[in-house]
Design a protein that fits this description.
Elements lengths: L18 H7 L3 H7 L16 E3 L2 E3 L3 H9 L39 H6 L3 H9 L4 H8 L6 H15 L2 H11 L12 H12 L2 H35 L2 H4 L10 H17 L6 H14 L8 H16 L15 H17 L11 H19 L2 H14 L4 H18 L21 H12 L5 E6 L2 E5 L6 E9 L3 H11 L8 E5 L3 E8 L8 E12 L2 E8 L10 E2 L1 E12 L4 E11 L6 H25 L1
Parallel strand pairs: 8-10
Antiparallel strand pairs: 1-2, 3-4, 4-5, 5-12, 6-7, 7-8, 8-9, 9-11, 11-12
Helix pairs in contact: 3-14, 7-9, 7-18, 8-9, 10-12, 10-15, 12-15, 12-16, 13-14, 13-17, 14-15, 20-21
């Protein structure tokens, strides 16, 4: 049996305690009937070896296919610097019922604008009442190109009030329960909701409990063996070379040792498993049974779709280095660990050899036992009741998410509105005088909420978690002229974005448009800004302003440059220039906290890089 301690709304912490309390407290049978209906998610998984399926199609889930999903090899890719945005293979998607233009681009039906542009309150009220029919009709009346952004807002709002009805509705769609209404949603939208759940704050927080130490161990092992390999190559040390296979990969014994440390941590972490994940696993069992493999099918699906992608690509949830920064030993070791997980899920179909056979035998029974424990229906019912009793809704956060969702729905059909509907603070408008812009910039640079993060190579980096969105500030002194520094700043800005389109205008004025991929599965971002300079006596200013009239292309979320720029002060007696530069960007849309924190670090890194270019050029 399983008791619960729900001590934080964001993490839904659940602990394996108090079996007597569980047995005594479960009384409500109506909850059971409401909770477990229909097929889990929209994966249409028929077995552990067939996780991809749509409209009667089936494909075998090979290790490479999951590895590609983790690395973003297949599916669409937005041009930008953030890597590929992963998606299901196009061949696995069912056809959309939406009409198409002559060019093949999905278009909205004529009734869409009149039917739903003025009824966001109705859609939101229906969601609160657990009625998703208006959402179905909304999806039928908009092009599929808009679904990803809609999924961002829909999931974020439902996650704040209660994500389970949304997941249950998605399951109903995948099970064909709404076909009598003529609904024929692409399985792609089902995937969008599933993926947003897989990368939600709740699930990512749970994953980091056991994957963070695992990836630290993997990196340590890769670094150690990288050094040994280098030394053995130089000294012809056969004992060190024996740690490597002929193809350069580490031996299975090394991988087995890492996985022998990982699996107990993984099993023990289920004491803290998120309640929505437990409910999903219980639905899997109710629909599909335990399967025919040695590991039950619910654990296999969890390993394949929640764990394996992050084992292969830890940076997908901001764990460790990016793929470009990893050594060859590190990359190979991650691949080997991923293959070990795949072998764990296919023991009956492909009996393992040593050392994996002994490794799996030590952990099979424990993994199945903990899976059964967290899927106990009475325990889940009690968990829901305790969570409802101990964790009261955060009305302010709910209201904030509801307002963002409402603005998105209202702005969708408003052709005159081009700025993101989530803006709560206006960017510096061109109607404001330069004097006012200067005062606003100086006030922001002097904000007491900036906190010094580090001082490196003569550049001080400041960040703040108290501003809405992402922000960073740098400060440095260089020996140069005012004119040269301003020119170098104009040249260095945005150069790290390979797809930036820069238009040079008169009077030291530039117009820049650039796109930026976001971590899978969240919508990429679109930026449009003006930059120009001004010199007043011994002071210089660089202004970065949002270009309000420029709207984002379909499938991109428009961001807002709340405030950006630089203040330069000439130190005449020393021939030096003191530089202060900052940016404050609203990423808009709806993203988890961990993604926002990840982007905040990237913005700080990019601003620090820009400052160093100026310092080294002077």
């Amino acid at each position: 049996m399983m008791g619960v301690v729900a001590n934080h709304r964001d993490s839904f912490i659940l602990t394996l305690r108090c079996p007597a309390l569980v047995r005594a407290a479960v009384q409500d049978s109506e909850f059971h009937e409401h909770l477990f209906v229909s097929e889990p998610y929209g994966w249409h998984i028929s077995s552990a070896k067939e996780p991809f399926a749509s409209q009667g199609q089936r494909k075998t889930c090979t290790f490479d296919s999951v590895r590609h999903r983790a690395m973003g090899v297949f599916g669409r890719s937005h041009s930008g610097t953030g890597g590929s945005i992963m998606q299901r293979p196009p061949s696995l998607l069912s056809r959309s019922p939406l009409s198409r233009s002559a060019s093949g681009t999905p278009t909205r039906s004529p009734s869409a604008s009149t039917s739903y542009s003025q009824t966001p309150s109705h859609i939101i009220a229906s969601i609160k009442a657990l009625n998703f029919i208006p959402v179905e009709e909304y999806l039928m009346n908009v092009g599929t190109v808009h679904w990803a952004l809609f999924a961002d807002h829909l999931f974020s709002y439902c996650d704040e009030i209660d994500v389970w009805p949304l997941l249950s509705w998605v399951s109903d769609i995948s099970n064909g329960r709404h076909t009598m209404r003529g609904l024929n949603l692409d399985s792609n939208f089902t995937d969008m909701i599933i993926n947003r759940f897989s990368y939600s704050d709740t699930v990512v927080s749970f994953q980091k409990r056991y994957l963070a130490p695992f990836h630290q161990n993997v990196k340590r092992a890769a670094d150690e063996h990288g050094v040994r390999r280098k030394n053995s190559d130089e000294s012809n040390d056969l004992s060190s070379q024996a740690l490597m296979r002929s193809d350069g990969h580490l031996t299975l014994e090394v991988v087995s040792g890492l996985m022998n440390d990982f699996l107990p941590d993984f099993i023990a972490s289920f004491e803290f498993s998120p309640l929505p994940l437990r409910r999903v696993m219980a639905k899997w069992r109710g629909k599909m049974g335990s399967g025919t493999e040695i590991i039950n099918s619910q654990m296999i699906r969890l390993l394949q779709w929640f764990i394996l992608p992050v084992i292969l690509n830890p940076s997908s949830i901001d764990l460790g280095e990016s793929e470009e920064e990893r050594t060859i030993e590190h990359k190979n070791l991650l691949i080997e660990c991923g293959e070990c997980i795949t072998a764990l899920c296919q023991q009956k179909a492909l009996p393992p050899t040593e050392p994996y056979a002994s490794l799996f035998a030590r952990h099979n029974a424990k993994m199945n036992a903990v899976a059964q424990q967290i899927m106990d229906l009475q325990s889940i019912e009690l968990s829901v009741k305790i969570l409802a009793a101990q964790c009261k809704p955060d009305e302010k956060r709910i209201q904030r998410e509801e307002e963002k969702f409402r603005r998105y729905l209202e702005s969708f059909d408003d052709s005159s509105r081009t700025v993101s509907p989530n803006a709560s603070v206006s960017s510096m408008s061109s109607i404001i005088s330069n004097t006012e812009k200067k005062d606003i910039l100086m006030e922001k640079l002097r904000e007491h909420r900036w906190k010094l993060m580090k001082n490196t190579e003569g550049v001080s980096l400041y960040t703040s978690i108290n501003f809405q969105g992402v922000s960073a500030r740098v400060e440095l002194v260089v020996q140069s002229t005012m004119e040269k520094v301003l020119k170098d700043l104009m040249s260095a800005l945005f150069t790290k974005y390979s797809d930036a389109t820069v238009e040079t205008l008169p009077n030291s004025h530039k117009h820049t448009i650039y796109k930026k991929d976001f971590p899978f599965p969240f919508s990429p971002r679109f930026y449009a800004v003006h930059t120009y300079t001004e010199v007043i006596d011994d002071e210089g200013f660089l202004y970065i302003e949002d270009d309000d009239p420029i709207a984002a292309p379909p499938s991109f979320q428009r961001t807002i440059m709340h405030l950006g720029g630089a203040h330069l002060t000439r130190i005449r007696e020393k021939g030096m220039i003191h530089i202060e530069m900052m940016v404050h960007i609203d990423l808009c849309g709806s993203i988890p906290k961990w993604v926002n924190q990840m982007q905040n670090k990237k913005v700080a890194h990019n601003l620090l890089w820009t400052a160093k270019q100026i310092r080294f050029d002077c």
